[in-house]
C-alpha cells in the first residue's frame, strides 16, 4: 500500500476585521505612551526650561528604542500615528501667528526677519555643501537654525524623509547652540550699547527656538513685558516663513534624488497657513488660543518621541566635527546678520 504524503497545512491569514482591530489597539497603546511621554517631557522642561520639551521627548524615545526588552514595544509600532501627531502639531502652530502682529513690526522689523532667515538658510546650505556633508542633514540644520528649531527640523523631515540619525543630530545641535545664545545675546546687546528694543529684536531674529527667545527676552534690561512681546513677535514672524522654507527644502532634496515623490506643498502645510489666517481674523477667544498653544507643544513632543524611537544611539556619537562646524557657522551668520540690520535699521 502506498502512503501518500499529507498535504501541507497552510494557515489562512486572520480576517480583515481582526487585523483592523489589532492595528487600532496598537495605535491606541502607542498614543497613550506617546502622550504620557509628552506630559513627562513638559514636566521636566518646567523644572529645567533650557532643555525644552521636544528635546526631552526625543531623548526618551532614543533611550526606549535602545533599551533591551523595551525597544520591541516602541520601535516601528505606529509610524503613521507619529506622522499624524507631528503634522497636527505643525497645523496648530499656525494659531500662534497673527499677520497683523507681524505687520506691526514695521518695514524695518520685517526686513530684519526676512534678510536674516534668507541669509542664514542660504549660507548654511552653501557651507554644508563646501564641508561635504549630506544634503539632508544640511537642509535640516538650515531649516532649524533659520526658522524655529526642532519644530522646523521635524516639519522639513516629514517632506524630505531624512535619516533618523540626521534628524536627531539636527535637533541636538539646534538646541545646544540656541541655549548658548540665551545668555550671549542679552549680554552682548548690553556690551554693544543696544537699546532694550534693539536687543529684543536681535534675540527674536537670531535665536533658534521660541522658548529660547522667551528665556533670552527675560534677561533683557529689567526683563519687562515690552521686551518679551517684541522678541516673541519677531520670532513668530520667522515662523511664518516655515511654509516657503519647507517647499524650498523639499525641492532641493528632490532635485538630487528623483525617487522621492509626494506633493510639493503637503496638506499639513496648507493647514498651517489656514490656521495663521484664522488667528489673524481674531475670531478665537484667548482661552482657545492658550489651549491650542498647550496642545501644540504636547503634539510636537509626542511626535518627537516617535522620531526618537527610530534612532540607534551608537550612530549619534561621536558628533561629526563638520556638523559642529556647520552649526557654528549657521549660528554666527544668524547672529551677525541680525545684529548688523538691527544696528542700521532700528
Automatic annotation (TrEMBL):
Main location: membrane
Membrane topology term: Multi-pass membrane protein
InterPro entries named among the record's database cross-references: UPF0324_pro (IPR018383)
GO cellular component assignments: plasma membrane
Keywords in alphabetical order: Cell membrane, Membrane, Transmembrane, Transmembrane helix
Cellular location(s): Cell membrane
Pfam families: Cons_hypoth698
Transmembrane parts of this sequence: 27-48, 54-75, 95-117, 137-156, 168-193, 213-234, 264-285, 291-312, 324-345
Family in the record: Belongs to the UPF0324 family.
Entry protein name: Putative sulfate exporter family transporter
Provenance organism: Nocardioides oleivorans
